[in-house]
Amino acid sequence: MKRKMDIENQLKRAIDKNQFSLVYQPKVNFQTNKMIGMEALLRWEHPEYGWVSPAEFIPIAEETGQIEAIGKWVLETACKQNKVWQQQGLGPLSVSVNVSVLQFQNGKFLKTVKTVLEESKLDAQFLELEITESIMQNIKESRDILTQFKKLGVKISIDDFGTGYSSLHILSKLPIDTIKIDKSFIDELDQLDRSPIIKAIIDLSLNLNLSIVAEGIETVNQLEFLQANGCMIGQGYLFSKPVKANEFEQLIRTNDVR
Ligand code: C2E
Ligand code: CA
Ligand code: CA
Ligand code: CA
């Protein structure tokens, strides 16, 4: 209880106190072995508790409405950073930003994305928004919102696919670009036999003309299974953990992504 209250209180000042940072994890094309983009992940260094996981503080930020300001900070930081790399001749890479469904359903978010793209001068095609499956709960509303983002030119990815509310029918009705197979399926691949589910998700996405990304790849076994079944893009500790911007820049340079 105390921890939750502290987090809630201190979250308010975390932006002003420069306690947030982003780390980046490469998205790799297995066929070419090159990086095609990166996911931006939020980090918070709390004065008392040290590094607090976004899995803990994002839900609190959603409850208190602070997600709006935090989400804007993440978007700005990620877009500006990607533009800086492009200006240095690195890439061009696509940056993926996690957006909570609450943030997405807030009418102001479209304007925020527009403004951030204008101010950072990042071309919209190099920004991808990752949203979880729960966006599918209200299909009519979601389709309208998603369509507006598509008009802006940004890409839309359905994160953690297979874990929540999902229906093939709905999937085909929404203007999305990518499905991300949830890490839990990849995790279990080596112990339980999750291959039928993963194969089904890959086939589904190929049939719907969506690109397919796997997350949480840690072993060569997992990588080889995905490759053999037609999933050619993924991320995970096998390639790299999420790292700070300066380290990521080294990764881009040594990987020769151009
Ligand atoms: P997610 O979007 O599903 O992100 C994937 C999580 O898996 C990240 O945890 C990442 O560090 C971790 N990961 C990546 N590859 C591997 C791997 O090979 N093995 C293992 N064990 N883990 C791996 P992280 O950074 O702690 O983020 C947790 C969740 O917090 C994210 O899940 C996302 O839902 C949320 N989150 C992170 N940043 C933001 C943000 O800026 N905004 C919002 N709304 N949510 C965020
Ligand atoms: Ca994600
Ligand atoms: Ca995910
Ligand atoms: Ca997740």
UniProtKB/TrEMBL annotation:
Q: What is this protein called?
A: EAL domain-containing protein (Putative c-di-GMP-specific phosphodiesterase class I)
Against Gene3D superfamilies, the record matches this protein to:
EAL domain
**Gene Ontology MF annotations:** cyclic-guanylate-specific phosphodiesterase activity
Could you tell me which PANTHER family the record lists for this protein? Answer: CYCLIC DI-GMP PHOSPHODIESTERASE PDEF, OXYGEN SENSOR PROTEIN DOSP
Checking InterPro entries in the record gives: Cyclic-di-GMP_PDE-like, EAL_dom, EAL_sf
Task: Show the SMART domains listed in the entry.
Answer: EAL
Give every EAL domain span. 4-256
